[in-house]
Structure formats: structure tokens, C-alpha cells
Design a protein that fits this description.
The protein has one domain. 73% of the residues lie in helices and 0% in strands. It contains 12 helices and no strands. The mean pLDDT is 86.
Length: 255
Amino acid sequence: MINATLKQLLFSELQENFKETVLARFWIVLEPVLFTLVYVFVFAIILGARDTGIEGVNYPEFLVIGLWPWLAISRSIGGSVNLVKQKSNLIKKLNIKSEYFLYARTISQFLIYSLTFFIVLLVLGLMGAKIYLLGLIVVIPVFLLLWVFTNGVALVISSLAVFIDDLKIIVPLFLTLAFFLMPIIWPAHRLPENLHFLVDYNPLATMLEYLRGALLQGQLLPGKAEYFFVALSILLYVFGTALYKRLSRYFLDVV
């Protein structure tokens, strides 16, 4: 069962994303759709990067399947960097565990982007994109696993950011760099041989490629790399939780 306090914070986070204006309610879907259209226009039309490496697969569906999970990851991590300082008054006044704010932030982002992911896949399917319906069964497990990984990273970064102010500048820059270095807007096979390590040794790239394989080719069986990501995510989450709890006792002295 979800803790009542965490449930209320999660509800508040979702309310913040779905504000009262009509446009704001749809913006959570419109923003990534506009991102997709811009990237398709720039890379597929202007730069001619239409080769996805998968026969019969067009660039829009290739891009969407990589972009949506990344948006959930980057928005969760980016939004958690300075969270303890932002919520310090509430933490002090209401005596709420600071990690609850982080959990509410990451859960809300993954809920939003996983739900809209299904919507966009449906739209692509209606437009003629070849989506393997059986591949949909791996979407929720993959997003859940990515949440575990992301939450581990967010716990480490948010706890360190209380003491290291520069992280609020470094982390967004790193997330931007990571976006362009992963096979989100470009297919992995386009890399020169000497740069294949950017995908081969990148656990997140492994999961994005697995998700594409399931949805665009019907390849559901995970391999050693996917099982390694499971172990890595769990270890990172355990480490992040331990570090956060150890450092959180000093948070109120700093903020």
C-alpha cells in the first residue's frame, strides 16, 4: 500500500501537471508530440535521416519509442535535483520525510509518460505504423524497471545536491549530452565502429533498443544485457536509498 502522505503528494504533483486551463491539461501530451514533430522535421526531412535500421519501420515510430521513456527519465532526474531545497519549508513545518517528495515527482512523471506513450502508439498505429500488439506487454515492465533505475539515480543526485550547489547546473547539461549520445534520435547501426561503446556499454541504450525490438519487430525475449540492467537498477536503487537516508539527517542543518 502507498503511504497516505506519499499518496497526497503524488496527487498534488499530478494536479500541478494538469492545471485548470484547457491548454495546460493537454500540454503534457502536446509537448512531447511537438518535440517529435520537430525532430522528425529536422532529422528525417531536412537531414534525411530516415534509415531506422529496421525494415518497414518509419522514423516517427522509431523516434517516439526512444523519446517517451527518455522524457520520463530526464524529467524525473532533472526535477529532483533541487527538490529538497525547494520543499525545505514543508519538510520542516509538516515533518514530512523528504524522500516522499522525490518519490511523488518520479512516480508522477513515469505515470504521465507511460500513459501518453500508449496514446501516441495508438495514434501511430491508426496512421499506419507497424506496431506489434504483443510487444505492448513489455511496456509497463520496462517503464517500471526504468523507474527503479531513475529513482536510484535521483536519490543519489538529490541528496548530494543539498551540499553541492553546482549539481543544479551540471545535471541538466549532462542530461542534454546523454540525450544526444544515446540512440534516441539516431539508430545504433549508424555509429562508426570505434564509437559502438556508446551503445554497447550504456544500460539505458540497451533498454531503449529492447523496447524498440519488442514493439517494432516482436522480439520479446530479453537477453543478458536486459538481465544485467535489472540487477544494476536494483543495486542502484538500494545504494541510492542508503546514501539518501545517511545524508538526510544533515539536510535541515544545510537548508
